[in-house]
């Protein structure tokens, strides 16, 4: 039925695995809705190659079959560039900061986020590419075709706005809530200047901080700021970040950050602070004022440098 196409077979298999109680009759209905042409040949599927449209139909059907919460979490994958190896912890901590995950049946938010992540693996929406020593998935990747579908959906629902990278997204006419700035040329940088960015709750950047719109750090309501791996980081950026009083998740991992100012103590809502692989060797005493902090991630495994806590 899937014309021998690996992606179609794998994603359909994930769909079947997550619906163990469907009867044969129900599966025949699924086949008919996905391949009305084949149904005319009395159910003889196969032989011919799948068209892009038919493959898109399969991806779309499998996406639509997911529970609502998990759909939301999968839309979030559109923040990352094509081919990016995504850290599972980075993803689940961000879901939590965005409020996509709530405690359920005695499970903590972290546990629920982990079950959502496992579900996306079972569904074959994401594919594990690296495991930790404990056997857990450390990094995953999204198939290009699946990502294309997710990006289109995220754009259609004004869930995420992606500027640059491999996608040519329609610039939203309304408010931008989540912004992903991927490596782009100066023309794209001008696009961000024109957009209404005062409602941005989540800002993720890949590449250079020079492509940041001039007014970007004036976003008072940003809750998630992820600048992992960005180049061109200056001391004044940290000063401005300390004015984002609603921040819950801040990642400056692998940036040129030298130290954190005392004003970091003003970020009373901060839950995750990631300064691994930076030049920050000591945290200011004001970090002790951050009562909601759950994760302090610091130091550098490669250089064996630790982070000194107050």
Automatic annotation (TrEMBL):
Keywords associated with the record: Plant defense, Repeat, Signal
InterPro entries xref list: Disease_R_plants (IPR044974), LRR_dom_sf (IPR032675), LRR_R13L4/SHOC2-like (IPR055414), WH-like_DNA-bd_sf (IPR036388), WHD_DRP (IPR058922)
Swiss-Prot/TrEMBL GO biological process terms: defense response to bacterium; innate immune response-activating signaling pathway; plant-type hypersensitive response
Keyword Iron-sulfur set for record: no
Disease resistance R13L4/SHOC-2-like LRR domain span: 199-299
Record-given protein name: NB-ARC domain-containing protein
Signal peptide bounds: 1-18
Entry-linked Gene3D superfamilies: Ribonuclease Inhibitor (3.80.10.10), Winged helix-like DNA-binding domain superfamily/Winged helix DNA-binding domain (1.10.10.10)
Domain Disease resistance protein winged helix: 79-147
SUPFAM superfamilies: L domain-like
